[in-house]
Amino acid sequence: TPEVRSLQDAFSKDFYVGVAINGRIIDQTDSLSLNVVKKEFNSITAENIMKSMNIHPKRDSFNFEMADKFVSLGEEYDMFIHGHTLIWHSQLSPWFSTIEDSLEFATATKKHVKDLAQHFRGKVDSWDVVNEALNEDGTLRNSIFLKKMGEEYLPSAFKWTAEVDPNADLYYNDYNMTNPDKRQGAISMVKKIKEQGGKVDGIGMQGHWHLNSPSLEEIEQSILDYSALGVKVAITELDVSVLPNPWDLEGAEISQNFENNERMNPYTKGLPDSVQVQLANRYKDIFNIFLKHRDKISRVTFWGLGDGQSWLNGFPIRGRTNYPLLFDRDLRPKAAYDSIMALKERF
Ligand code: G3I
């Protein structure tokens, strides 16, 4: 057997292994990171530059420059290119909320979706058509899209995208998708979208996870439940925070300034070996599940390359030092990387 030299080699028969890349990687200012991306991954997602705020800053004009560079990069290295995201209430371009009239809002939203799908037609392999439309209890989030267009915005968005680019895989993507209430909500939502003529090809389970939650049982059951809908399952936005959530700490208030709080930011001088091992074991456990269900999983995408680039250093409070990814701040593979690579020997 040939030597396994990278994540993409290791899982080539299982699923795509993807990474979210930032602007500095896309415009090739950060060539060190770019080299690791090219070596290790066979799929890319733009972490920010395809969000409406960046790509469609004014109602009448798009800013495709960075997104086009992103696509060229993927094409050059023959990667699977994932588009993130067509409809999202957050990082929404401000012009959306200046439209009072509902009909006008719907027309503009339709144009947004169709114009983007058209521009990237045949280039973007799959889309997060709608991102984060659910509340934790499984009901629909009262976003500007729901307020202006009603529930219909969901099937419509999927229909519009499929009309323009019938070959792209269309995903619904959200976080906490392992939470039973939200899971039920997602399942009924996808069923409904399909009943109403929308084409849904996949569900994206954002993997913004922790060392001890969600449980492995919840992760596995969620993969099974979504797959039972007859759609592909992608693990998107994977990262494992090693820091406590403010809301998990007794007596903690999120409004407090935790920046210099030892309890909230304990590893500013480095990650202790014991936690490094915990992280490696956690990644091993979740990848074991992914491999067990590799027939159901289309792609596993990490939300960032190295620890220094992770959004989790600023969430939910500024100035934290988190270690959620497979590569350290110098882009060296961590124990978590080795633990995943070692798994392949068993399959
Ligand atoms: O680029 C500007 C910079 O010029 C400016 O000085 C700085 C000041 O705040 O902001 C920079 O932009 C930030 C951008 O990330 C790039 O770093 C934005 O403020 C910040 O809001 C943005 O955060 C992103 C966040 O989504 C909001 O869009 C994170 O990088 C990104 O990782 C995160 O990703 C989301 C997914 O899209 C959806 N699911 C959840 C996930 C995590 O929140």
Automatic annotation (TrEMBL):
It catalyses: Endohydrolysis of (1->4)-beta-D-xylosidic linkages in xylans. The keyword Metal-binding does not apply. The active site is at E237. It holds the Pfam family Glyco_hydro_10. It comes from the Bacteria. Residues 1-343 form the GH10 domain. Belongs to the glycosyl hydrolase 10 (cellulase F) family. This is Beta-xylanase. InterPro entries: GH, GH10, GH10_AS, GH10_dom. Its EC number is 3.2.1.8. Keywords: Carbohydrate metabolism, Glycosidase, Hydrolase, Polysaccharide degradation.
